[in-house]
Design a protein that fits this description.
The protein folds into two domains: about 10-55, no CATH class; about 75-145, no CATH class. A two-stranded antiparallel ribbon has the order 1-2. By secondary structure, it is mainly α. It has helices spanning about 5-35, 40-55, 90-105, 110-115, 130-135; strands at about 75-80, 85-90. It has five helices and two strands, in the order ααββααα.
Length: about 150
């Protein structure tokens, strides 16, 4: 005597698989909407993960309107840190100044950041020695810049 349980179980499996596929297709749209809405929980979770990874807590800044830069305005390199605008000569100067700014607020920041297992895709951004920045490339060691003496 067959009760149809096997057929019903197969239908349930099929419905579950279809639901999983639908969820996977919907995931990118859901993520985009969360980012657009600046969901408080999501922002807090991201902030916590950033702090876990590099030891710096993100502070939420109020959204500001962006004014277009006139095409005849002089181009300049710079950054904003802790609500203050800073000038820099180039991208390396930005990175060095930002590292210094973080280290001023938290004297252990540089040591903790250097201890992270990975920084960039190809090389480290910060290390205790010049040789650690460019392992296997002694010709590049001269490109290293000292953030803080020692």
């Amino acid at each position: 005597m067959r009760s149809g349980q096997a057929i019903e179980a197969a239908r349930r499996d099929y419905r579950n698989a279809a639901r999983k596929r639908q969820a996977q297709r919907t995931l990118p749209d859901a993520w985009a909407k969360l980012i657009e809405s600046e969901d408080e929980l999501l922002v807090e979770l991201l902030s916590d993960k950033v702090e876990d990874l590099c030891g710096v807590k993100l502070s939420r800044q109020p959204r500001r309107s962006v004014q277009p830069v006139p095409s005849d305005a002089p181009k300049s390199t710079g950054y904003e840190l802790y609500g203050q605008r800073h000038r820099a000569r180039n991208a390396r100067d930005v990175l060095v100044q930002v590292f210094r700014g973080f280290a001023e607020r938290d004297p252990s920041f540089l040591e903790r950041f250097a201890a992270l297992p990975k920084h960039g895709r190809k090389r480290r951004y910060l290390a205790r020695t010049r040789e650690e920045l460019y392992p296997g490339s002694p010709d590049l060691v001269g490109n290293a810049y000292e953030v803080r003496p020692g």
